Amino acid sequence: MDLAVKVRRYDPEAKEPIPYWSEYKVEVDEYTTVLDTLINIREDIDGTLSLRCSCRSAICGSCSMRVNGHAQLACKTRVSEIAPDGGSVTIEPMGNMEVIKDLVVDMTPFWDKVKAVDPWLQPEGPEPEGEYLAPNEDMLHLAGVMGCILCGACVSDCTVLEVDSNFLGPAALAKAYRFVADPRDSQEKPRLDSLRQYSGIWDCTRCMECVQVCPKGVAPMDRIMVMRDLAMNAGFDKEIGARHTDAFVELVSHSGRLDELKLPVKTVGMFNIRAMQSFAPVGLRALVRGKMPPIFHKMLPNVENVRRIFRKLEPKK
Amino acid sequence: MSKYAFFPGCVSRGGCPELYPAAMQVCRRLGIELEEMVGASCTGAGVLQEKNQFLGDVLNARTFAMAEWMGLPIMTICSTCQGVMSQANKRLTDDPEYLARVNAELAEEYLEYKGTTVVKHLLWIIIEDIGVETLKTHVRNPLTHLKVAPFYGCYILRPSNALGFKDYPGRETSLEELIEAIGGEVVNFSGKSRCCGFPILTINEANSVAMVGKHTSEAADMGADAMVTPCPLCHLNLDGYQPKAMAQSQRKTNLPILHLPQLMGLAMGLDPDELGLQKHIISTGDLVSKAVPA
How many CB atoms lie within 10 A of CB A85? Predict the structure, then answer.
């Protein structure tokens, strides 16, 4: 099967270092991976093509790159799956990271953020003679997140990092969860205290890109959501994100559907003048256009059935 | 005639009151019969699920059981409602023991979810159930002069294993297919599958507004006359916060953001005012003049 491969290139040592595209015609079969294809190009067609790779078995996490717009491990992706009838494949370096050359990106900020969450076990008490033991069933829920190979695919496609490079990001937060939720760790509360702060768990926009692209099923966003709940239960419930969640739950528990007028007011607080001033122009524009939720919010006709479910499953503190 | 249990969602009669009547008019034209689920609660929108996913699944199972009792598939008009319900439905139907635990919470209301309810967004219904060829027969005013940028909303795209993409691979490009069917030219911009920023609007407004600016600028730079979205939450941010995004980025985009049924309604020759196009924050006046011949 003939395939056209379009690769995003960048050479910092070129006279005019600007990104450009190279196109190659290659022959592939049913089992050829994207990585095989790139290595063949480098060895037989264009020795100047740079890429990272090592194990070729989806273990080392070196060969993450964007294939047809989404971050994937090149060694785990068969060309026949993404271009079943031949045609073309587009390959770019990972997003949200500086390109060093061609498909090689600078992962220094990635590692800095992973280091920032203290990614090691911090047990308390005297050191045991053997290993730190934990019941098997308490560790099972960590199996998925321990599967992380730090490939960077989630960071590449994170939509928050596209607009805010300070965000800790899905990989570091998934790593943080791995220790927050470890029954042998003694630092759950201090860890959550740090993670709840600016650029941490509440800045995730729940776009699920990280869940979609992770080649190992780590589901970073799901871990972030669990940490939000853990943080609130640990008493860190004054963050604006926590107040937003609490307000949402309270409003739906009351009327069965969301009262959109009350949600922002309850979240920021009626007497938060600065926040109210920020809402004012948007609210005013909406009012002028007749684009407002009803002032008198309607309850569900059978709301008592919904309230009963809330009373039982999410009792008020 | 196709009939559905209609789940309008909170926003279509709240922050986007123009969406509900626009959807009703378009469905009437296409012969889609709707029976509204007046007793169905909010899906939780992913926010409630942060705190208590089981509770969210009980509420959604309650809605699915009501639809089962009606003997109808559910129609949504919101990417977020669609995604949250699809994810809940997957958890409920993947694990009979979990479903039994959830059903135990519904017993007091004499409801039981058997696991058979299909939940479909209007976008998917048009492509898969009504068909593009039928849609074309209802087009009175092909949008041949319009360049339209699609914007899906995260929840109707990810995670794809909960949204039936394996059985319906066309869902990934359904919005483009629909734009072309009604005569428009698709503006294929990279932001179409990204996040509008709405979920963090009250939490980190600067980031949320930066997302609005990024997507509207990219589409406008590629010549888009309008953006269309099947998600009213994306609409709220991309339309309502575009003035702030313009101020933040010093870039005048003024890109009208249309709800899916509004764009279809224009092509079907429905009255722009009845479609609620005058209710948008970013004026749709120029767009309507371009789309509808005088």
Answer: 6
